[in-house]
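Much of what follows relies on a compact textual record of a protein's fold. With that in mind, consider the following protein and its fold in token form.
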Amino acid sequence: MRETTSRLFRLPGDVRACLSFFSRLPIRTEHDRPFDLGTSIGAWPLAGVILAIVPALLLLLLRSAHMVPTIAAALTLAATAGLGGGLHEDGLSDCADGFGGGRTRGRKLEIMRDSRIGSYGALALFFTGLIRVAGLASLSLVFWEGAVALLCVAAISRAAAIWHWRALPPARDDGLAVAAGVPDRASVVIATGFGIVAAIPLLAIFGLSAILGLALLAAGVAGFTSLCRHQIAGHSGDTIGASQQIAEALLFAGLATFWPALFGG
């Protein structure tokens, strides 16, 4: 409890650290303490919300100009990927290429380190991107609710990725995930708290659709974590990014399942 309280007091610095690492924003971390991803990671969901503010405002602007929801959603998610530097999308494509193209654990990890994208990676990006765009477009039929969903999903999907990270040992002997270590209990508690807070508006606005989305997210991340255990016996930076993308796509899919029917869609 004391450690969790201590982390909450240093939350502004941890948010800056996460924004500096997980985005293209020119943000410097505090000079009086070294950057420690392992102990700062609890702030990742909150950093995700901050990173989603500009895309959410863009979505509101585009929809207020009566832009078609699908195009508005695509431009919004493109802005989101641009701010994040495509970091999580890169992890998803690397995982798909490695898991789909490698026959042995060592070969899978070798492929995942290759910066070139293959057919499995391209397909993974295409279909998850398609789900996210279609889901956000459906939610954007109402002027402001797509923007609210975007902010909440940003937090919840990152909290889910931290659970994935925590559930598995590192798959490699080197690399960023090994250097960062497994998130400790305080980080998981703080990240989970942000995820719960973000889920409340979704449940209040979307009701049954939110319950379905959260259930799909939990099942999808749990299934992907089990797959990673079977394929490479652990996690890596790529699997962490992939779990965030999977969580986001499934949550958008669930939120949009019943929502268009309310408007005759």
The radius of gyration is 18 Å. DSSP finds 13 helices and no strands in the chain. Residues 59 and 65 are 10 Å apart (CA to CA).
